User: Which sequence fits this backbone?
């Protein structure tokens, strides 16, 4: 598929405004398009675009309407992971997994939006400072 021009993750949530505000406030997204029960977000660079749809919307096929974003993790590889964790914690974001380092060299933490969308920020330990321990 050489003709892919961008990547978009579509998330079905109960409260589109709450997730929109989370992604724009904490993760640098901007609203590109919005309507009742819908928001298309982008941030440029290598990050995937995000589309938020209200659960139950008739735009979705009937078998998908009552589903919600669950069981998935939206992951971003970043640099300066510890600073991102400090910034999000100071901003009052819901840190649901504190900064840690896995034995295979992945450093990560998770934050969860008001609709339960789990966002994981990752940095490889070989590219960064040692993990903080608490």
Assistant:
């Amino acid at each position: 598929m050489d003709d892919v021009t961008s990547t978009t993750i579509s998330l079905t949530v109960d409260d589109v405004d709450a997730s929109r505000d989370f992604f724009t406030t904490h993760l640098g997204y901007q609203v590109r398009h919005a309507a009742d029960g819908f928001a298309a977000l982008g941030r440029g660079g290598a990050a995937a675009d995000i589309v938020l749809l209200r659960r139950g919307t008739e735009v979705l096929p009937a078998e998908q309407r009552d589903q919600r974003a669950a069981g998935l993790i939206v992951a971003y590889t970043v640099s300066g992971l510890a600073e991102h964790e400090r910034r999000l914690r100071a901003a009052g974001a819901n840190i649901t997994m504190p900064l840690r380092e896995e034995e295979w060299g992945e450093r990560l933490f998770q934050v969860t939006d008001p609709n339960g969308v789990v966002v994981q920020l990752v940095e490889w330990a070989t590219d960064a400072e040692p993990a903080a321990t608490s």
Remarks:
- The chain is about 15% helix and 35% strand.
- The two ends are 45 Å apart (CA to CA).
